Amino acid sequence: MRTLFVGADVGGCRALEPVLEEMRRRGGEALVADHGFWKGKDEGNQAEDEVLRTVASGGVDVLAFSTSVKDVFPLTVARLCRERGIPSLCMLDSWVNYRSRLEIDGKGLFIPDVYALMDDEAFDEALRVGFPADVLAITGQPAFSSLEQSARVSRQDGRKTVLFVSEPVEMDQGGKDSFPEYRGYTEKEVFPLFCRAAQPFADELFLLIAPHPREDGSALERLWREHRGCLEGRILAAGEGREAAFSSFGVAGMASVLLYESWLLGLPVLSLQPGVRRRDLGFILRRDGVFGAESAGDIPTATAAWAAALHRDRAPARQELERHRSAAIRCVELLESLYARKIGG
User: Fold this and answer.
1) What is the Cα–Cα distance from 95 to 115, expressed in whole angstroms?
2) Within 13 A of 278's CA, how many CA atoms are on the CB side?
3) 126, 152, 212, 318: most buried, per Cβ within 10 A?
């Protein structure tokens, strides 16, 4: 069985990587598109035009792909595979944009042969937005399969290291009502509100700020300088956020999947989404024990409760983590099933 792997954004590629590793561990042949987050990572990856030629000639048996909020290449490959009778598995990497990510090219909704989802909530939401039940499979999220609790990093000055996870919200979903995917807030509003709410705890905290790989770091730096007040901290380099999160005392942000990963590991998590108007973004707010604010007025209270939780003993990893441990194996089994169905007619 020859499987083609196509990703774009970092989250989707991270979700596919354990599946790719499991496929190769079993002796399966795998091709990887040299695109998006994977571009330039491996000399053996196939260039984009070569991928399209390989698919057009029927040179792959099944497709495993993830999607993007902006990048249409994985969806282009998936549609070409459909034309050539090549079945596909789409890996959903977070609890947002279930439908829009599969129609961003303006060619109508693409329904993969298998839509691999993280949990029951994702299944219910995918049904709600129009996907047929027979293509939905709850697999867990493969990128979470290797999550392990890290030792908390203590500072000599006694401050507790915490992380704020930023996102390019305005760039991706717009900054006002006229944008159809508008969240109801942007990072330019939330981060200053968080800094203001954290001022009473400035002597207790050391704040690390994790920019998104696609985010304008200079704009985030300006926000930090303008609104930090008495807070001590610094902005991390791109790619340092996950490791910093897992060794911190607590994690704050909006709706990044890194908040969910931190919650799985038992960390105090603060989700600030003032004015949120999209149900899918509430996935983290609905988790047991998450400190959340859905209005600007609630942010000081939620932040204070979160700050108090930083002083408690660390909670054990969440039971939900176990489902994700076997996610890669489950995805490979589904790909093998698609192949068996294909050759069986």
Assistant:
1) 13
2) 23
3) 212
Amino acid type, 221? E
Q: Provide the greatest CA pair distance for the chain.
A: 67
Q: What is the pTM of this model?
A: 0.89
Q: Are 96 and 71 in contact (CB under 8 A)?
A: no
pLDDT in tens, 66-93: 999 889 999 999 999 999 999 999 999 9
Closest CA to 58 of 102, 17, 12, 2: 2
Number of separate domains in the chain: 2
- In a domain, residue 35? The reply is yes
What CATH number should be reported for the domain holding residue 62?
3.40.50.2000
Same domain, 104 and 169: no
Grade residue 149 by pLDDT with cuts at 50, 70 and 90: confident
The pLDDT confidence band at residue 42, using thresholds 50, 70 and 90, is: confident
- Alpha-carbon distance of 121 to 260, in angstroms, equals 13
User: How would you class 150 by CB atoms within 10 Å of its CB: exposed for 0-12, middle for 13-18, buried for 19 or more?
Assistant: middle
**Within 10 Å of residue 294's Cβ, how many Cβ atoms?**
20
Contact 145, 328 (CB under 8 A): yes
**Residue 82: both structure tokens together:** 């459909």
Pairwise CA distance, residues 69 & 104, whole Å: 7
Containing domain of residue 178, as a range?
Answer: 160-316
Contact 113, 338 (CB under 8 A): yes
- Does residue 229 come out as left (phi exceeding 0), alpha (psi in the -120 to 50 range) or beta? left
